[in-house]
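Structure first, sequence second, as always.
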């Protein structure tokens, strides 16, 4: 009975191949930082006593944003010139209006966000508070590891004032004050991670509200593009990052004082809309910035970059120039930002499930109800039925 044995072997091989292909992430093998950021260079990510370092976030079966978002190295239109060289380990240039990814490099590489995670915190704050609501910082809020704005414990500040301090000057004291107002650091990071999940940011886990490194912290240039895309739709956020100078009012024991936007491209790069900078020893330099040229709004996110041989903002300028050149030339996008879960679910109820790339449902969208597993099982059953039929005929003929 060699034939049934051969068929069984074929079935086992087929099943193994299909399960492997459906269970593994589509990112090319050997992509740097595919599962987690590089090891830390200091003790900043050591967990509290009695707690373990969280396991890396699971890898999705398919890269969010389209198949090309799983590629290593530079990802750009096949007919276009290669993008400029930068020091960034990964980056994404996106169209802020269409959600198209214009070009990228290792877009789903998992890196540390540093203060870019404050864009996610700002979104949570905007969803939970009004701009005119007031927050009174605690002594713990006001004594955080700086960069700090200089808020005073026991004094009252509006949410709008604190948002300017968070986004313009990257105040860690403000980030902690927001976290306290949201129910404490654990509750705030839980809300941040829930929002990241709703946005489709599957590479993102916030461990601290400020971006100071913490156990299990990760994100990607693609995810931060999603988060920034959503944040720029909020007038409170867009207004704060576009503000060059802002004055905090006098409070008891402290006179009025001014802060200046940390983003050096504001007022320098034509049409610049604002952005955010970040740095820690482990994350290195991170950056997001957006600009409007002739009605086209592009944004760039850079991860794990260095200030030499050229400043990060100069490298960001080169990538923005490259992106605007591609759009002007009519180049095809290389990917798409996925739709937020809430929007996708609403569309699905209306019979219009969203699609992130032509012919490919976004990870947030509803998948085929039958599913890959159903097709695998059906195929196996069909092969076994055919094998049984052939064996039965062979027995009758003998």
């Amino acid at each position: 009975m060699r034939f049934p044995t051969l068929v069984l072997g074929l079935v086992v091989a087929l099943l193994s191949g299909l399960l492997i292909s459906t269970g593994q992430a589509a990112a090319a093998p050997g992509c740097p930082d595919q599962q987690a950021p590089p090891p830390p260079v200091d003790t900043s990510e050591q967990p509290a006593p009695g707690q373990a370092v969280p396991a890396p976030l699971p890898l999705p079966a398919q890269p969010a944003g389209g198949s090309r978002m799983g590629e290593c190295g530079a990802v750009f239109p096949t007919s276009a010139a290669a993008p400029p060289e930068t020091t960034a380990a990964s980056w994404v240039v996106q169209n802020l209006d269409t959600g198209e990814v214009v070009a990228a490099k290792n877009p789903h590489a998992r890196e540390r966000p540093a203060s870019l995670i404050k864009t996610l915190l700002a979104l949570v704050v905007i969803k939970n508070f009004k701009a005119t609501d007031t927050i009174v910082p605690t002594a713990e809020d006001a004594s955080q590891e700086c960069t700090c704005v200089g808020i005073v414990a026991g004094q009252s500040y509006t949410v709008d004032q604190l948002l300017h301090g968070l986004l313009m000057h990257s105040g860690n004291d403000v980030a902690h004050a927001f976290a306290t107002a949201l129910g404490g650091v654990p509750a705030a990071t839980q809300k941040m991670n829930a929002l990241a999940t709703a946005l489709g940011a599957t590479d993102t886990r916030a461990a601290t509200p400020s971006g100071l490194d913490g156990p299990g912290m990760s994100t990607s240039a693609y995810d931060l593009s999603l988060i920034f895309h959503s944040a720029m739709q909020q007038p409170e956020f867009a207004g704060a990052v576009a503000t060059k100078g802002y004055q905090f009012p006098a409070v008891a024991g402290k006179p009025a004082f001014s802060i200046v936007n940390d983003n050096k491209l504001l007022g320098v790069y034509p049409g610049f809309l604002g952005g955010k900078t970040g740095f820690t020893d482990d994350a290195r330099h991170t950056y997001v910035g957006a600009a409007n040229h002739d009605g086209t709004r592009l944004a760039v996110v850079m991860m794990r970059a260095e200030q030499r041989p050229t400043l990060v903002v100069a490298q960001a300028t080169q990538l923005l120039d490259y992106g605007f050149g591609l759009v002007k030339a009519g180049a095809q996008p290389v990917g798409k930002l996925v739709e937020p879960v809430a929007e996708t679910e609403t569309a699905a109820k209306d019979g219009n499930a969203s699609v992130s790339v032509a012919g490919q449902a976004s990870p947030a969208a509803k998948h085929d109800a039958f599913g890959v597993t159903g097709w695998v099982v059906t195929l196996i059953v069909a092969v076994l039925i055919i094998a049984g039929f052939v064996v039965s005929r062979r027995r009758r003929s003998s």
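Margin note: Residues 371-397 form the longest helix (27 residues).
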